[in-house]
Design goal:
Layout lengths: L1 H14 L1 H12 L9 H7 L4 H7 L14
Helix pairs in contact: 1-2
C-alpha cells in the first residue's frame, strides 16, 4: 500500500531526474521562484513569467474563508 502511494513520485523521478531533484530541493529549502538567481535560471530553462504569475495568489496573503454546503 505504501509503495502504491510513492509510485507517481518514483515515476516522475525516473522520467526527469535533474528537474525532479532541483524542484525537490528548492521546495525543501523553500526557495521562491520569483527571487533571483532562481528566476533568471528558470527563464533560461524555458520557464516563462506567465507560468510564474499563474502560481501566485493575486497579491492577497493570509487565510481565506470558504463555504462548504
Amino acid at each position: 500500500m505504501f509503495l502504491s502511494e510513492l509510485s507517481p513520485i518514483v515515476k516522475e523521478l525516473l522520467q526527469q531526474p535533474i528537474a525532479f531533484t532541483g524542484g525537490f530541493f528548492s521546495g525543501l529549502l523553500r526557495l521562491d521562484p520569483n527571487d533571483e538567481p532562481l528566476a533568471s535560471w528558470l527563464s533560461k530553462q524555458g520557464y516563462t513569467s506567465t507560468d510564474r504569475d499563474d502560481n501566485q495568489n493575486n497579491g492577497s496573503d493570509g487565510p481565506h474563508s470558504i463555504s462548504i454546503e
